[in-house]
Design brief:
The complex is a heterodimer. By secondary structure, chain A is an alpha+beta fold. Chain A has 3 domains: 174 residues, Uridine Diphospho-n-acetylenolpyruvylglucosamine Reductase, domain 3 (2-Layer Sandwich); 82 residues, 2-Layer Sandwich (Alpha-Beta Plaits); 65 residues, 2-Layer Sandwich (Alpha-Beta Plaits). Helix content of chain A is 26%, strand content 24%. In chain A, the strands form 5 sheets. Chain A has a 5-stranded antiparallel sheet with strand order 4-5-9-7-8. In chain A, strand 7 and strand 8 form a beta hairpin. The two termini of chain A are 21 Å apart. By secondary structure, chain B is α+β, with helices and mostly antiparallel strands. Chain B has 5 domains: 93 residues, Uridine Diphospho-n-acetylenolpyruvylglucosamine Reductase, domain 2 (2-Layer Sandwich); 115 residues, Uridine Diphospho-n-acetylenolpyruvylglucosamine Reductase, domain 3 (2-Layer Sandwich); 109 residues, Alpha-Beta Plaits; 89 residues, Alpha-Beta Plaits, CATH 3.30.70.2740; 49 residues, no CATH class. In chain B, strands 15-12-14-13-17-18-16 form a 7-stranded antiparallel sheet, sandwiched between helices. In chain B, strand 17 and strand 18 form a beta hairpin. In chain B, helix 2 packs antiparallel against helix 4, helix 9 crosses helix 11 and helix 14 runs antiparallel to helix 15. The chains are: A alpha+beta, B alpha+beta. The interface between A and B is large, with 97 and 102 residues.
């Protein structure tokens, strides 16, 4: 294990490399992806908020900074991370609230509100990183609107460290809504519940949570705003849901936090999958997978499934979906779906553009990547 | 900026290239002098250059075939939409094939349940909204050229528009593309597709990585209420303070635009939108959403503007007045164009706090260069559009205007900003890239270029000041999935 405290340490470690590295923040999601190999490159010491300008709504931090620390600092100014990163640590048997911002970005951690505000890719404005040549470089910028050069920040999000260790990230942040409220529609079938969510998504209510839980046969919808606008949104929402009775529920934010963190699937002993799918195909996909435990977020655009079925990638693909396996006891299942040949070749070329010698998390996503 | 001389070897094969292209796209090859003159540049009007030949495919299969041919013959290609790039992104090359995609202009699918439109690259931006507005939807990115500019060009340039403050740039509203790679292979790249976010790096890649032959765009429900405020200020810093206070209050306007005194005068002379001529600057602010949300925001923004010293504050009372207020802003470019034969539109983004300093220093530069300019400004996100006016026929003025523009952009970078917020680098800002990026930063971007286009045939001469051969960039191809370790002399 090489412990780094600065970008210079990371550069030195890469220049002295004798073999591949497993890039680590707090190590809460080590079980995500294919089994890591290589010497640990520990970035938890490359931490701290570098700058935070509430008026510019921009925050720059080192990758080892805990997400919980960043959220606490933002909350003091009534701001938040728009991609609403839930804590995925417990899914992998790690303690809660330990995950780092670098890990959240690399693993594309996104919560329920991402349907409204986007994922990490929509918020990472710029970064610093070290490539496989041992060079520190930057991508993107530190302002919200920037098209100068290639948008490398997008590539870093969801790359699982395969393109190299981040050493600094710059994120746009959002104003925290003053209030939020969650309505529940009970005793609603999968078809009707998901149709309701799509109807709300196609309305101007800008809902920040749209989930369906088949076990409870309940659809939940969260809206936010200042007091008066929130009351109007709730009234409009009840109109939209006209043929169903809707109840306001307490603790909506906590509930969406649990859904975003996969909590309902914890301890089930089932493999945990997260499947992005065109939302109108959600019902068909859910039937196809027939998981004993599942629920839908993002108005059906995201299915969390706990199942023993192993061919989830193939089943998801039939409905235009893309699955990622978060955890399974059966290590033979590929966490990432195999890519078509032309795409796979492109992926390998892009990997090599950052990491020509295969130093960074090699094999974490696919062979050689 | 110097254009590179054409490759004589390619010029000598022109007849063969035209013949083979004509076989692939029988009714879509333009090779005569007059025809090529119609395609000899884009909205960066200072640069003109006829292409070797222009081809206008109608299908993605034809695009693929053309790209296979260019790869085989080693001929550069320059993709082109409507030619509205302000940075010279579609500027042809004398030794390159201009691949114009405007005949691929069909909308292929509209899916309200999933919230998307699938379009060919030559469909214009505005026609996406036109196709879905009857059902209460719209496509959010709205560059000022939206009546003409195409979706393919929007993806290539990652186009913005006045509403991207709230709704994001093209990249945030692009769900998937089908991309033709060098050699003609087609790949599908989508958001959340279970792999690296290649879609994200293709958006805004200025035609250097591939050609979009199909795009899936997110459509959004149109907000039921939009109200428009005009706030006029007697000092520019006061306007800047107003902008900062609105953002700090947690309000995200749909749009927030600033025009300075000179621009107000030009626009009033041009189309009389009703801006107060006695102001040093005006802000035009759109607030949208459901009624109560907008009512709340209008009240708060009005209070903030008054506290910041607005001497005039009014709201558009009807749709006609709202349209007029925005027509003035959108006409800033043509209005300034009447004051001089030529114009350069800069596009730097700065942290909002640096606004007073940057505006003051630009005024001083204008004096020093002896060239007029005005400022329009996407105030909410710090994206400046200084318009420099000059006369290309006067010896030295183009060079002076370019140097003035370059100095503005270097200033943007120096205060923590970037060279371009939405217009792209193209040829215009290519040579300024080292002001923002180190050699290592640029080399890393170029290695990504090589990963897509190892022969360097896609839009060469754009974005990067020096385009080295891919092997010099340290790019290595993966062989057999197994890679050596780095403690070798090559590092």
């Amino acid at each position: 294990m090489i412990k780094c405290a600065s970008e210079a340490d990371v550069v030195e470690a890469v220049r002295d490399a004798h073999g591949p590295f497993e890039i680590l923040g707090a190590g809460t999601k080590r079980g995500f992806g294919r089994a890591p190999e290589g010497e640990g490159l520990d970035l938890s010491g490359v931490s701290g908020i570098v700058s935070y300008e509430p008026d510019e709504m921009i925050l720059t931090a080192k990758p080892g900074t805990k997400v919980s620390e960043i959220e606490a600092v933002l909350a003091e100014k009534n701001q938040c991370l728009g991609f609403d990163p839930p804590d995925w640590g417990p899914l992998f048997g790690s303690p809660a609230s330990q995950g780092t911002i670098g890990g959240a970005i690399a693993c594309d951690v996104a919560g329920s509100a991402a349907i409204r505000y986007g994922r990490a890719r929509d918020h990472l404005l710029g970064f610093r990183a070290v490539n496989g040549l041992g060079e520190a470089y930057r991508g993107g910028g530190k302002v919200v609107k920037n098209v100068t050069g290639f948008d490398l920040p997008k590539l870093m999000c969801g790359s699982f460290g395969t393109l190299g260790p981040l050493t600094e990230v710059t994120l746009r942040v959002f104003p925290e809504a003053p209030l939020s409220a969650t309505l529940a529609v009970t005793e609603v079938t999968t078809e009707a519940g998901l149709a309701l969510l799509r109807r709300v998504r196609s309305s101007p209510l800008e809902a920040t949570g749209l989930a369906y839980m088949p076990g409870e046969a309940v659809a939940i919808i969260r809206v936010d705003g200042a007091r008066e606008p929130l009351a109007e949104k709730l009234a409009l929402l009840r109109e939209l849901l006209s043929e169903h009775e809707a109840y306001e529920v307490d603790g909506g934010d906590a509930l969406f936090g649990e859904l975003g963190g996969g909590a309902p699937l914890l301890g089930s002993g089932l493999a945990v999958w997260r499947i992005a799918v065109p939302r109108a195909q959600a019902v068909a996909l859910a039937k196809e997978i027939a998981a004993p435990l599942w629920y839908a977020d993002w108005a059906g655009g995201l299915i969390w499934a706990g199942t023993k079925v192993t061919d989830v990638h193939e089943r998801a693909a039939k409905h235009g979906g893309h699955a990622i396996l978060l955890r399974a006891d059966d290590k033979a299942i590929a966490p990432f779906a195999p890519e078509p040949p032309a795409r796979a070749a492109l992926t390998k070329s892009v990997k090599a553009a950052f990491d020509p010698s295969g130093l960074f998390n090699p094999g974490r996503m696919w062979d050689g990547v | 900026m110097q254009l590179s001389p054409p490759d004589p070897d390619i010029l000598s094969r022109r007849a063969e290239i035209i013949a083979r292209l004509s076989a692939l796209v029988p009714d879509g090859v333009v090779a005569d002098e007059a025809g090529l003159a119609a395609f000899d540049g884009d909205a960066l009007t200072a640069y003109r250059q006829p292409a070797l030949v222009c081809v206008l495919p109608k299908t993605k299969e034809q695009v693929a075939a053309v790209l296979a041919l260019t790869a085989e013959m080693g001929v550069p290609i320059v993709p082109r939409g409507a030619g509205t790039s302000l940075s010279g992104g579609a500027l042809p090359r004398g030794d390159g094939i201009l691949l114009a995609l405007t005949r691929m202009n069909r909308i292929l699918d509209i899916d309200y349940e999933n919230g998307w439109v699938i379009a060919e690259p030559g469909v214009t931006n505005l026609s996406i909204t036109r196709a879905v507005e009857a059902r209460g939807f719209y496509y959010a990115p709205d560059p000022s050229s939206q009546i003409a500019c195409t979706i393919g060009g929007n993806v290539a340039e990652n186009s913005g528009g006045i509403h991207c403050l709230k709704y994001g740039l093209t990249t945030n509203n692009l769900l998937a593309v089908e991309l033709a790679l060098p050699g003609g292979e087609l790949v599908r790249l989508a958001q959340n597709d279970g792999g690296l976010d290649l879609l994200g790096v293709v958006a805004g890649s200025e035609g250097l990585l591939g050609v979009v032959v199909e795009a899936t765009l997110r459509i959004l429900p149109k907000p039921p209420v939009t109200r428009t405020l005009l706030a006029a200020f007697r000092s520019v810093p006061a306007a800047g303070q107003c902008v900062a206070a609105i953002i700090a209050a947690g309000i995200v306007p749909a749009a927030m635009e600033f025009l300075d005194k000179r621009c107000i005068a030009a626009v009033e002379d041009y189309c009389a939108p009703g801006y107060p001529r006695d102001a040093e600057g005006v802000l035009i602010i759109d607030l949208d959403g459901i009624e109560a949300d907008v009512r709340d925001a209008v009240a708060r923004v009005s209070d903030i503007a008054s506290a910041a010293g607005a001497h005039q504050l009014r709201e558009a009372t009807d749709e006609g007045e709202r349209a007029r207020l925005w027509a003035g802003r959108k006409a800033a470019f043509p209005a300034m164009g009447r004051l001089a034969p030529d114009m350069l539109c800069m596009d730097g983004t700065i942290p909002r706090r640096a606004l007073p300093e940057v505006l003051a220093r630009m005024a001083a530069m204008s004096e020093a260069y002896g060239l007029g300019f005005c400022n329009v400004f996407h105030a909410g996100d710090g994206n400046l559009h200084p318009l420099i006016i000059f006369d290309v026929m006067k010896p030295g003025e183009l060079e002076r205007a370019e140097e003035f523009g370059a100095e503005i952009l270097r200033l943007c970078v120096a205060v923590g900003g970037v060279l371009t917020g939405e217009h792209g680098v193209g040829v215009e800002k290519r040579d300024l890239m080292p002001a923002m990026f180190s050699e290592q930063d640029l080399a890393q971007q170029q290695r990504v270029k090589c990963a897509f286009d190892s022969a360097g045939l896609f839009n060469p001469g754009k974005v990067f000041p020096t385009l080295s051969a891919c092997v010099e960039r340290g790019h290595m191809h993966v062989k057999g999935g197994r890679l050596p370790f780095p403690n070798l002399p090559r590092f």
